[in-house]
Amino acid sequence: MTIQDLNLKNSELGEKVSNIRTIVESSNPESEIDTQTQQKTIKHKSNIKSLERKIEKNNVLIKEFYSQKEKVSNALEYNMDAELENVGLSKKSTGLSTKQTMFARLPKLLCLHLNRSMFLSNGYVAKNPAKIVTTPVLDMAPFSTSGHLDTRPNVPISISKKPADYSMNSINSKYQLVAFISHVGSHDSGHYYAYKRIVYDSSTTPEKYNWFRISDTDYSIVDEKTVMNVGNGFMLFYQKMSSKR
């Protein structure tokens, strides 16, 4: 909850207190009133005290938020390495969220950058060690849109093509892996390796493809199976396959 939320909550509580006070003050204490009315008045006064305690509690939180804000501002301006007492970061959400990207028009060269950074709850950044399963041929048909956008909130923005729509034209959505960059090490240090598929004539079968493995000024030749098992991919470059194949 933010300072703005607390101020808004206090405003709502204050309005309730004011309304209840008006009801209580409108009753004439000198006149004879029945027992039921007396009980309502007592209940109203009890509600006023309860609401006032909530307002006071929110005021304490607001004061604490401002104090933390001042500590953070001073640290950012004067000493970013200072340890801040009683200042912490709370998780806004612990649920799992996903993001999906779809293509309206597939490019000739598809460059995929895999984000390996993980932002931890303690403020540190680490490398995501998840292994990437690499394939020599990638079919992008399931990830291409039907070409029509839908703004209704209860349906996807753009629905992917149905299998029947892209099965006849699937060759136009297939890509071949032609280059590959991997990273070994941590988030702050490490080394990059580049892999480049060696271009042969059209008679060479994919099973016999070889790759250059490049490290700085050194290189070696490896088979395609070795490249597919690297697992620590960072960037992948796919080239659209010709419809003549």
Kindly report the CATH topology of the largest domain: Cathepsin B, Chain A
Most strands sheet = 7 strands, antiparallel
* Computed structural class: alpha+beta
**What is the domain total for the residues?**
2
CATH class of the largest domain: Alpha Beta
The number of distinct β-strands equals 11
Q: Ranges with pLDDT <50 over ≥5 residues?
A: none
Estimate the helix proportion, in percent: 25-40%
Residue fraction in strands? 25-35%
Average pLDDT metric: 76
* CA-based shape: elongated
Name the CATH architecture of the largest domain.
Alpha-Beta Complex
As a whole number of angstroms, the C-alpha radius of gyration is 32 Å
Total helical elements? 4
> Distance between the terminal alpha carbons, to the nearest Å?
59 Å
Topology order in helix (H) and strand (E) letters? HHEEEEEEHEEEEHE
Q: Could you state the CATH homologous superfamily of the largest domain?
A: Cysteine proteinases
Structure description:
By secondary structure, the protein is an alpha+beta fold. It has 2 domains: 3-78; 109-240, Cysteine proteinases (Cathepsin B, Chain A), CATH 3.90.70.10. Helices cover 32% and strands 25% of the residues. The protein is built from 4 helices and 11 strands. The chain has helices spanning 3-26, 35-78, 163-167, 224-228, and strands at residues 109-113, 117-119, 125-127, 137-139, 145-149, 158-160, 174-185, 190-197, 210-215, 218-223, 233-240. The strands form 3 sheets. Strands 1, 4, 7, 8, 9, 10 and 11 form a 7-stranded antiparallel beta sheet that branches. A two-stranded antiparallel sheet has the order 2-3. Helix 1 (3-26) runs antiparallel to helix 2. The model has no long low-confidence stretch (mean pLDDT 76).
